[in-house]
Specification:
Pfam families: DUF3482, MMR_HSR1. Residues 7-92 form the G domain. InterPro entries: DUF3482 (IPR021871), GTP-bd (IPR006073), P-loop_NTPase (IPR027417). This is GTPase/DUF3482 domain-containing protein. The protein has 476 residues and is of the alpha/beta class. The protein contains 17 helices and nine strands. The chain has a six-stranded mixed β-sheet with strand order 2-3-1-4-5-6, with helices on both faces. The protein is elongated and about 100 Å long.
């Protein structure tokens, strides 16, 4: 079996090497710190999809004494033909030498056959120290690529381009925190041009990663659809004995049920968010979840959430007509067409009327407290009777998915979910609107969807994600 390409990510200390490794290996567990010297030993990170390792990145310590190392190399080399062997001799001779521990760590994967990814900070000026580093790397004779990863606000990238172009086969600007997924793929293709043996495996790797991303989007749509069904149809129920019923008023019982219902919905939404994050290999955002609920004005049930994510009355009316017409069409089918389409028409009108009526307010779920019978009293809260609740959940879920799917694994900032400034679902096509509304109506009425309806619902959710992606990327 062909070994996957291996790349050692090297450079000056604290210039973004670990960030590049985290993003390209899709691993947010890699430590990224502001202080120099965080990485003291080389560490390999395979990029694996469906059990197959596509390539391996080696995170390394930064150069500490590059000019001393270069002096040694120049003193022990006879001609250009022995430079790679001289670098190998340096590592062999200085193993265990505390003065050159970091240089031995970063050069070892190169003398073992890894390609070079040299990372520089384009916001700091080029210096003689960097030239010594680049000269050492050139002496290894390994295929090489340089990345300009600007960390600060200053811009010296033009000077860096000129200098790096003299030492490396390919030079690219790459923001490890913000670079879009397409740039990741472009970088992999560039790696494939460095060494003939790498071209095919890295071309396959880009295909695997693209397909994997497409599958993730479909799986995310399924997760969101499942959560919506659960939350729209959820009912909080409590059965009390006569003794228990006598000790609590209907108002207190209603309050308890309502609190439990809200708590369940919040927990279900958080479960959905965690599932989406894990789907995209983000394991460390969990501790940032407190920040999501910290923004009280974005709370699931606040008026702000409703005004941001709920859809317009006009939208509800048209979607409601379509969903009602779909239900009414089943009547036409049962009567073998003798209703002459009246079922679809009536169903559409009922759906539109109901949506119009409920379109301007986020109604609470139905509360039902029964009478004491045979020594027991039953009370229920839910399911929610307003489909706007579903649109709030849908909007928040798609927004969260979008941020996660576009978030690089080098990102360490808090996940801040800002509300949209106008409603993107207005761009959704008519069949998708109707499929979503039909699903919400089914849940509200405690009716099960058949497999065909559920499939259409999931497809409509995925269409919503595409629509939202277009809206986010193209808005002014």
């Amino acid at each position: 079996m062909t070994q996957p390409p291996v790349f050692a990510v090297v450079g000056h200390p604290n210039k973004g090497k670990s960030s590049v490794v985290a993003t390209l290996s899709q691993n947010d567990a890699i430590a990224i710190a502001l202080e120099p010297g965080t990485t003291r030993q080389r560490q390999s990170y395979p990029m694996t999809v469906d059990g197959r390792t596509l390539y391996v990145l080696v995170d390394t310590p930064g150069f500490q004494r590059p000019r001393r190392v270069l002096e040694w190399l120049e003193a022990h080399s006879v001609s250009a033909s022995d430079r790679a062997e001289t670098v190998k001799a340096f590592v062999t001779q200085h193993q265990g030498d505390g003065r050159f521990t970091d240089e031995c760590e970063l050069l070892t994967p190169l003398i073992e056959g890894a390609g070079i990814i040299y990372v520089v900070d384009g916001s700091v000026p080029y210096s003689a120290e960097h030239e010594a580093e680049m000269t050492i790397l050139r002496w290894t004779g390994r295929p090489s690529l340089a990345l300009i990863n600007s960390i600060g606000s200053e811009d010296y990238s033009e000077t860096w381009q000129s200098a790096l172009g003299q030492f490396f086969q390919v030079v690219r600007k790459f923001d490890a925190v913000r670079a879009p997924f397409e740039q990741h793929l472009s970088l992999l293709r560039a790696f494939g041009q460095l060494e003939p043996d790498w071209e095919q495996p890295l071309e396959e790797a880009t295909g695997f990663l693209s397909e994997h991303r497409r599958k993730n989007q479909s799986q995310a749509a399924t997760l969101i659809a499942r959560a919506l069904e659960d939350m729209m149809a959820y009912r909080e129920k409590r059965t009390l004995t006569s003794a228990q019923a006598s000790g609590i008023s209907d108002e207190q019982l209603a309050e308890q049920l309502r609190d439990r219902w809200y708590r369940h919905q919040r927990q279900r939404e958080q479960t959905l968010r965690t599932d989406i994050e894990h789907l995209y290999h983000h394991q460390r955002i969990q501790r940032q979840e407190a920040e999501l609920s910290w923004h009280n004005e974005h709370d699931l049930f606040s008026e702000d959430s409703r005004s941001t994510w709920a859809v317009s009355r006009r939208y509800l009316t048209t979607a409601g007509f379509g969903a009602g017409a779909v239900s009414g069409a089943s009547i036409d089918a049962i009567t073998l067409g003798h209703s002459l389409g009246a079922g679809a028409l009536v169903g559409g009108l009922i759906g539109a009327a109901g949506s119009y009526f409920y379109g301007d307010r986020l109604m609470l779920p139905a509360l039902n407290i029964g009478v004491l019978k045979d020594g027991f009293k039953t009370a229920t809260f839910g399911p929610v009777q307003d489909s706007q609740f579903g649109y709030v959940i849908l909007g928040r879920a798609v927004d969260h998915w979008w941020h996660i799917s576009h978030r690089n694994h080098a990102g360490r900032d808090f996940l801040d979910l800002e509300p949209a400034d106008h409603h993107w679902l207005e761009s959704l096509d008519k069949p998708a609107r109707q499929a979503i509304q039909l699903a919400f109506d089914k849940c509200r009425k405690e009716q099960s969807m058949d497999e065909r309806q559920r499939h259409k619902f999931i497809a409509a959710i995925e269409q919503s994600m595409i629509t939202y992606d277009d809206w986010r990327l193209n808005r002014a």
